[in-house]
Amino acid sequence: MPELPEVQTIVDDLAAAGLVGRRIASCEVLWHNTVRPLSPTEFHHRIIGLRFASLARRGKYILFGLESKPASTGEGPQGAGAAQSLQLLAHLRMTGQFSLVSAEEAPDPHNRAVFTLDDGRQLRFHDTRKFGRLILAEDPERITGRLGPEPLDPSFSVENFYAALRRHKRRIKALLLDQHFLAGLGNIYCDEALYISGIHPLRKSDSISAKEADLLLATIREVLTAALKNRGTSLGDGETNYISDGRRGENGRALQVYGRKGQKCARCGSSIEKIYVAQRGSHFCPSCQPLKPNNPVSPARSGVDPGE
DNA sequence: AATACAGCCTGGACGC
DNA sequence: TGCGTCCAGGCTGTAT
Fold this sequence. Notes:
This protein is α+β, with helices and mostly antiparallel strands. The chain has helices spanning 4-16, 40-47, 141-144, 158-167, 172-177, 187-197, 210-229; strands at 24-29, 51-58, 61-67, 86-91, 96-102, 111-117, 121-127, 133-137, 273-277, 280-284. The chain contains seven helices and ten strands.
């Protein structure tokens, strides 16, 4: 399940593989809804001949900057006048993956869009469950502008986070999953961060103390940073891998509650429970994450004072 | 304002 | 073995 660390890993891999600068020689849309609301024909028509000019991530979106001007082969900022007219926004949802392979490579039945590049390689969008989306946007801000702050952005302060929590009365799990509140967290890292912070997923956000908010934001950052180092989480033996070059993310081992229903909490030995919050399976330890704040059970991170 | 739920999808796990 | 059923989940749109 691609969340911030997985999406960032893909962006980094695609950049390292030299996608930027390549021109789209041809494009084939194999599942019409992937490029909705455009038709495959219209999508093809608008993207053909454009050059990948930049690569970035915002929340769980991959942002491919596209330029119409042909690549200048020389060094230097020669293409200064090229208008960055269009962006391709990719959202992987549940099972989306990108790969950058030789056009000779055997096609996969789950490929939903294939971009053949001017160097003979293909950028392939693979998506088993067909939830993923490729959006061509002239004003990507209309989409990305609605996203909440980036949790790893150092300018996003704990004061801002705490104030934002207090503005809502929602269950903390539902709020953290809301991309308009905070961009990039998904079910896995949300469960992990709440567990490590000792916060029950059903706690109302305005019941979170300043101290807890401090711990929670620090924990979210730790969890995401660790996952980034591990190239994200690839779950299950047979599960298809989102990693662009076929390598698996190694973060699965680090998960402490996600997918561990019925197993023992590593900290206290209680049985991990699973409930549904905001229609998502939510894993937590009932004794380490009490519903009531100010419970004497201390949070997981060592060296943290359990509260006032 | 917050929540619930259907819809979008397929493959794997499960029970019989 | 093979079938049917359920479940997983991010996000949007609609209803409550």
